[in-house]
Write a structure and sequence with these properties.
Number of domains of chain A: 1
Low-confidence stretches of chain B: 383-393
Distance between the termini of chain A: 42 Å
Strand order of the largest sheet of chain B: 1-2
Shape of chain A: globular
Distance between the termini of chain B: 54 Å
Structural class of chain A: mainly alpha
Largest sheet of chain A: 2 strands, antiparallel
Number of strands of chain B: 2
Largest sheet of chain B: 2 strands, antiparallel
Mean pLDDT of chain B: 81
Order of helices and strands of chain A: HHHHEEHHHHHHHHHH
Oligomer: heterodimer
Chain lengths: ~325, ~400
């Protein structure tokens, strides 16, 4: 069975957005800020893969764990140098958010400089590239399709196990709920925050290193998908990792499929307006249900009218 | 007119260093308006407006989409023949020749030029206020972070519309704008800079009056504690919406002036990275909450940036990458360093001036605190590391 290319592109993209949205939501839970630099971590993942594949001549899939580590290191450095210091000084959510904007600009600029440096040394194109030719083929389809799906599913399962079964994951959730109460119970809040920033940075870079295997990548493409990430996270409710999984996958899938569908109806020019689709989701969620899918779920299962609606549909809630 | 000719001829030959000074003055005028409006919103009312780029782009689109058509129409009514401009192709293809014709007309009709400028500013302010109302609808009742997310995506969306609809600003190619200062015999850049600085001065006095009025005190009260304000009967959401609308209207003016300064509009001129991030950098650098700090931060950032751009040829010879990326790194690091080492900015916030009340004495009244209950709070006020206050005591 061979899927059409557009479906494969949509699924690969949706997997990346899912992983990125999970990380964005985790940051929002633990640090209470929207991290605008989250997409730029993915940009670093793209260039780790590029360096290992085109410069060192290795298999691109070998670079995935490396980019996870690099992204985690960037996240930890960002937390130690900027977010942690500002948080300790008592900066509010707005101050921290502005600092993440500064980090985004800093990281993107460093990435551009790195790309120029590589171009000067190796005399090859570094600004726009795709790594499709380095991929393997299995049953008539690109390998990244299977790998992206597998990574997405494994990440979700591992994350669920980590957050519910391990001590560190439980303490991470406790810190997200109430840092002061968690520290009373003997949890090292700073250290837990460090682990969570490592995890989010690593996941973002891992998603980024999948990006050039199917799509055309530039140093700025990591920063560009931040709108989609935020839309996915907001659709999931901003405060629920499980919501982010559904929301990220939905927004990523619909961004490509909806564009294709609308192109079939109105003409090819709709493709230019593709970034408006996540924005449409964002505004719609804010207007209809600001707490996203999580809020809608709670409304259905907890409120009187929601239960009435469900029972009319034939679904019973205990 | 003779007087003008004398003034104009004195600065007719502007090159080299003088051009740099005009450029810095122009950019200072543009950004000080944005930064002051931002100070009005964030520094005093606590509304984190991350959508300055949206409001500025509205000003630019007003000039290219509305004023340009009005100018064509007026010139045609006056009996001057223009090339066709109705279809998208003609609109772009004949733009340059049409603008030259319009400029020749405006040279002899200064009143038309001035009224075009005033018209575009007025329309931009109205549209800016409408945009302010639109962005306040989905997000103003919610948390500040939601507002930030919405505004940042809106800035990107507005650029997409400008890039893809040629009727607004010529799509990717951009469109030429007539010179409304064609009657001025001297350098066009100088008069644009002077007009922009004058607008900035007017805005400064408007903001100062508003901040020292009862409404300004109400704004600060909302920033400090909105729950208390709403409990004493103030309509917090309505006041916030009004502030956002007013400041958005003011923020649209720099977009208009940028279009006239370059005589050209393209969507890439109004990038989010420039208009939003720099204005925030200026605000944080100078210190939110007072206009003097905004002026200082704006002057520092603009001077540094324009000097880097003017000496770009020198840096590009010794570096392997474009200097603009190094400049971005510099500005990013600067913001974080200021936030960490001087959280209140270069000039900290001052108390408001209220005629007839010694407000300073009221606030600085000694309050007895038992420090044993909260020993760390004693150090809370001494967080500033390099305080400038020593010479005031």
């Amino acid at each position: 069975m061979i899927l059409p290319a557009i479906w494969m592109a949509a699924i690969v993209y949706a997997c990346e957005i899912t992983i990125l949205s999970i990380g964005f939501t985790l940051t929002y839970l633990t640090a209470k800020i929207p991290n605008f630099a989250h997409g730029t971590y993915a940009g670093w993942g793209i260039y780790v893969t590029y360096t290992m594949t085109k410069i060192l001549g290795l298999n691109p899939y070998l670079s995935f764990p490396v980019s996870f580590l690099v992204g985690g290191a960037i996240g930890v450095i960002v937390y130690i140098l900027v977010i942690g210091v500002l948080g300790k000084m008592g900066g509010g959510a707005i101050v921290l958010t502005i600092s993440t904007l500064a980090i985004q600009i800093f990281l993107t600029a460093t990435l551009y400089i790195y790309a120029f440096w590589i171009r000067d040394i190796y005399r090859t194109y570094t600004m726009q590239f795709m790594l499709k030719d380095w991929d393997f083929r299995l049953w008539g389809m690109q390998g990244i399709f299977y790998v992206a799906l597998a990574i997405c599913i494994v990440t979700v399962i591992l994350l669920h196990t980590f957050l519910t079964k391990t001590r560190l994951g439980v303490s991470m959730r406790a810190v997200a709920e109430d840092p002061e109460l968690a520290s009373v119970l003997g949890i090292d809040v700073y250290r837990t925050q460090l682990y969570s920033w490592f995890l989010t940075g690593g996941l973002a870079a891992l998603a980024g290193s999948m990006y050039p295997m199917w799509f055309q990548a530039t140093p700025g493409s990591g920063a560009l998908i931040i709108t989609t990430i935020m839309a996915g996270s907001l659709l999931g409710g901003m405060e629920s990792v499980y919501g982010a999984i559904v929301g990220g996958f939905g927004v990523g899938l619909s961004e490509i499929l909806l564009t294709k569908w609308l192109q079939g109806i109105f003409g090819i020019w709709v493709g230019e307006y593709r970034p408006l689709i996540p924005m449409f989701f964002l505004i719609a969620v804010l207007l209809i249900q600001p707490r996203g899918l999580q809020g809608a779920y709670e409304w259905l299962t907890k409120s009187k009218r929601g239960i009435e609606l469900l029972s009319r549909l034939g679904i019973k809630v205990e | 007119m003779e007087m003008l000719a004398v003034i104009g001829s004195g600065v007719a030959a502007i090159t080299g260093m003088n051009r740099l000074i005009v450029d810095i003055a122009m950019y200072f005028g543009l950004f000080v308006i944005v930064a002051m409006a931002l100070n009005f919103q964030y520094g005093n009312a606590g509304i984190p407006n991350f959508g300055c780029a949206v409001q500025v782009i509205v000003g630019g689109f007003t000039v290219s989409g509305i004023t340009l058509r009005l100018a064509y129409w007026l010139v045609q009514k006056a009996g001057v023949k223009l090339l066709p401009y109705q279809t998208a192709y003609d609109w772009l293809y004949n733009s340059q020749l049409n603008v030259v014709t319009v400029n020749n007309f405006l040279k002899n009709h200064p009143l038309v030029g001035v009224s075009l400028l005033l018209f575009s500013i007025a329309v931009a302010m109205v549209l800016g206020a409408i945009i302010g109302w639109v962005i306040s609808v989905p997000a103003i009742r919610l948390r500040a972070t939601y507002l930030m997310i919405t505004l940042i995506t809106m800035a990107d969306a507005s650029q997409i519309f400008g890039r893809n609809i040629p009727y607004i600003c010529g799509g990717t190619l951009g469109i030429w704008i007539p010179n409304v200062f064609a009657w001025y015999p001297g350098d066009r850049g100088v008069i644009t800079a002077v007009v922009t600085l004058a607008i900035g001065l007017v805005c400064f006095f408007i903001f100062r009056t508003m901040l020292n009025s009862p409404y300004g005190r109400l704004m600060r009260a909302i920033r400090e504690n909105e729950v208390t304000c709403s409990s004493v009967g103030k309509n917090v959401v309505g006041i916030r919406r009004n502030i956002l609308m007013f400041a958005s209207a003011i923020t649209a003016i720099p977009g208009v002036m940028t279009a006239y300064y370059y005589s050209y509009v393209v969507d890439a001129m109004y990038q989010r990275a420039y208009w939003t991030y720099w204005s925030w950098l200026m605000l944080i650098l100078g210190g939110p909450g007072n206009n003097a700090g905004t002026f200082l931060g704006c002057a520092l950032v603009i001077a540094m940036r324009r000097v880097i751009i003017v000496y770009k040829w020198f840096f590009d010879k010794i570096l392997f990458f474009p200097i603009s990326y190094f400049e971005q790194i510099l500005l990013g690091v600067l913001l974080i360093v200021v936030m960490i080492f001087r959280p209140d900015g270069l000039i900290p916030e001052k108390l408001l001036y209220i005629p007839g009340v010694n407000y300073t004495k009221l606030v600085r009244e000694k309050v007895k605190v038992d420090w044993r209950t909260a020993p760390k709070m004693r150090l809370a006020g001494k967080r500033r590391r390099f305080s400038l206050k020593f010479w005031r005591r």
